[in-house]
Amino acid sequence: MLHDRVLVRADGAEGERRSSGGILIPATAQMSHRLAWAQVVAIGQNVRTVETGDRVLYDPDERAEVEVRGVEYVLLRERDIHAVAAERLGDSSGATGLYL
C-alpha cells in the first residue's frame, strides 16, 4: 500500500436485506444516500488514523474496487473515511470505541 491509501473489505452483501421491523428490502430498491462499513485489511505508510483490523465508515460512491486472488476489496483515501470503530479504543474508561 502506498501513501494515504486504505484497503478495506466491505461488510455484508449488496443483495436483499431486512429492515429492523422484518420487512424484506430487495436489492433493486433505491435507497437514499447511505454510508457503508468495512474492515481495514492494509494501510499505506502515511495513514495515521486507522490500523489494520479497524472497521471504517465510508461513502460507497467514493471508492475504487480491486480484486486480489478472487476476493474483492475497496481502495480508499484516508480522507474519505467518515468514522472508525476500533477495539483498541475500548480500553480507556468511558470510551465508546467509535470516533468520528
From TrEMBL:
Hydrolase recorded as keyword: no
Gene3D superfamilies tied to this protein: GroES chaperonin
Keywords carried by this UniProt record: Chaperone
Pfam families per record: Cpn10 (PF00166)
SMART domains cross-referenced by the UniProt entry: Cpn10
Coiled-coil regions, chain positions: none
One MF term in the entry's GO annotations: unfolded protein binding
Keyword Membrane appears in the UniProt entry: no
Family membership noted in the UniProt record: Belongs to the GroES chaperonin family.
Designated name of the protein: Co-chaperone GroES
Provenance organism: Actinocrinis puniceicyclus
